[in-house]
Predict the 3D structure of the following.
Amino acid sequence: MDNFDVKVFESSEGNVWKYVFTSDDAVMEAVLYRYEDFYKRTVICCSTMSGCPVGCKFCGTGNKFVRSVSDNEIVGQIDYILKDKGIEDVSYCGERVQFMFMSMGEPLLNWWNVDRAIRELNWKYPSAELLISTIAPDEPEAFNKMIQTSIDIPKVGLQFSIHKSTDRERNKLIPYENKFTLREIRDLGSVWYTMTKRHPYLNYCIDGTNNSLEDAERLMNLFSPAIFNFTFSVVCSANESMKDAGFKNIDVIREFEYAFMKAGYNTRIFDPAGQDDIGGGCGQLWYVQKWMKEHGEKVTK
Ligand code: SF4
C-alpha cells in the first residue's frame, strides 16, 4: 500500500474506525468494527472497487466508477488495518474474525482479483470468515468460479443484497440492468447451498416501504427457510449532509423480522455503529464523495 495515503477516522463510540486509502488514481474505504474487544469479534469491510458502476440509489458512490481494485490492494487494506491496530494474530486466537467484501464495489464484477485476494487472505488468516456480498450481476462465469472457490474454502460465505420483494421495485432501487432476477437469485443460492452445504444470506434493508405483510409473503414464497437466512438492515444516509435521511426504526425492523422468525427462518439484524459521525454503514462513502469531487477527471462514469 506504499502508493496510498491513509487517513483514519474514529467513531465517537470508540469501536468503529474508517480507513480511507487514496492514491493518484483511486480511492478505497474500509471499515473496522470491534465488538467488546478485538479477540471477541472483529469485522473488517473492505473495498473491491474504487467507485462502483452498480448505482444503488441509497449508495454514496453515486453511480460513479473509477477502477477495479487489484488483489494486492484488497489484501493490503486488511493487512494495513490489522497491523495498524497491532492485531495481526487476531485471526489465529480471536473467537470470531470476519472479512467482508462489501464496503465499496461489486465483487462479482471484479471476480478475478477478489478470488485471488480471498485465496491469499485464507492462507494468511486461516480462521477468518470471508463474506462475499453481491447484488448478483448476470455474470455466469464469475458465479461458477465463485462457487468453486466456496467449495475449496469452507470459510467463504455468501450474501445476496435483494432489498425488495419484487423485481420491479428492486430494479428501481438497483438500476444496474445486467443482474439476475429474484427467482434466479433463489436458484443460484440453492445451487450454492447444495454445493457447499452452507446457508446463503439475503440482505434486506428496510426503508419503511418494503416491510408490508405482502412483502413478507412474497419473500417467504420465494426463499425457503431450509436454505436461506435473512439479514435485516437499517438504511444509512448516503450523504453526510443528510444524516437523518436513513431509516433506523429498529422496532419496525424487529416486527418484520419476527414474522420470519415465526416462520422458521434464521434471521439477524444489522445496525452498524459509527453511522452518524464517520459514515460507518453500507453506502456511506462520504470520503469517497469528497475525493471524487476533487478528482472528477478520474471518474469514468
Ligand atoms: S451499495 Fe454496493 S453494489 Fe450498490 S452501488 Fe454501492 S458499492 Fe455498488
